[in-house]
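Continuing from yesterday's entry. The apo prediction looked reasonable, so today I'm repeating it with NAP included to see how the binding region is handled. Same sequence as before; SMILES copied from the compound registry.
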Amino acid sequence: MKKVLIFGSKGLLGTDLARIGKDLNYDLSAFSRHDLDITHYRILKDAIFSIEPDFVINAAAITNPLRCQEEKNLAMEVNATAVKHMAEICWDLGCTLVHFSTEQVFDGSQSSPYVESHGILKPVNFYGYTKAKAESYIALLQRLVHADHPLQYYLIRSSWLFGSGRNNFVENIFRAVSDTGRAEALYDQSSIPTFSSDLARRTYEIIAWELPFGIYHATNQGSATQFEVAEAVISLGGFQEAQIQPLYRKNITDRRAPLAPSVILGNTKLPLMRHWKDALMEYLTDLKNKAI
Ligand SMILES: NC(=O)c1ccc[n+]([C@@H]2O[C@H](COP(=O)([O-])OP(=O)(O)OC[C@H]3O[C@@H](n4cnc5c(N)ncnc54)[C@H](OP(=O)(O)O)[C@@H]3O)[C@@H](O)[C@H]2O)c1
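Holo prediction written out below.
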C-alpha cells in the first residue's frame, strides 16, 4: 500500500485529499497547520524522513491574496521557501512531491487559455508572486539535479476552488442569497470554477496512472465570471427571486489584492473533468443538506 503524507489537511483542498485518500485505502498521514508548521525546516524534514512516504502532497498555503499582500514575509515563507525545502527533502529521500499552484501565476493578458508549457509567469499580486516563486524553485532544482536521480514531482495548477473543506466564494454567494435574497459578484473577472473534491480525485488519478512528472492543469470544464457563478447558484439552487449586484474590479481595489481580468488554464495533458455547473449542482446539494 502506497504511503501518502498530506500537508495542509484542514484546508479546502486538503480536507478532500485526506477524505478521498482514506477512501482509496492509501496509508495516509495527514497534518494540519496545527499539527505541523511547514515553515519549520527541521520539523518538516524529520516528519518526511520518519514517515518515508511515497508521495508528499502539499496542500498547505496562504491563499488569501489580500493577506499575502499584507503579510509578505509569511506568504513567502509558506508559499515559496517551505515548498523549496519540501522539494529538496523529497529529492533527497527519493519520494514524489505533489504540489499545487494557481492560475494567478499568469497576468491574464493573453486571450487564449494558458497551457502547461507556457513558460512566462507574470503574476499581478503577491499571492501569485509567491506561487510563481515556488514553481521556479521546483524548476531550478529539477535542472540542477542529476538525470540518474531526478526530482519526482507533479505540479498541479488549478483555479477558483469551491468545496466543503472551508468557506469559499460559492458558499458566500449561497449564504448571501439564502439569508438576504441578494449577493454581490464580480462582473469583469473570469476563470474556471473547480470543485475541490474533483481536483482531489484527479490528483490521486495522476498518481495512480503514473503519469510523467511535470506540470498539469486540472480544472472542471467551462469558464465563468463570478457573476455567472452567482447566476448559476440562483438558478440551480432554486433562489429565483434573488438579485445579484455586479461588482467591477476598479471599484473594489481597497477590499482586494490586484486581480487579473481573466485567466483560463488550458489542459492539454489530462482527460477532461466534468463541467463546473455539474460539480456546482453536487456542491449546492451538500450545502442545502447542511443548512437543513
Ligand atoms: N482556493 C483556490 O481557489 C485555489 C485555486 C488554485 C490553486 N489553489 C492552490 O491549492 C492549494 C490548496 O488551496 P486551498 O484553497 O485548499 O487553501 P486553504 O483552504 O487556504 O488551505 C490551506 C491550508 O494550509 C494551512 N497552512 C497555512 N500555513 C501553514 C503552515 N505554515 N504550515 C502548515 N499548514 C499551513 C492552512 O491552515 P490554517 O487555515 O489553519 O491557517 C490551511 O488549512 C494551494 O497551493 C493553493 O495555492 C487554490
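Comparison notes:
- Residues 17 and 200 are 5 Å apart (CA to CA).
- The domain at 3-161+192-217 is CATH 3.40.50.720 (Rossmann fold).
Will overlay with the apo model tomorrow.
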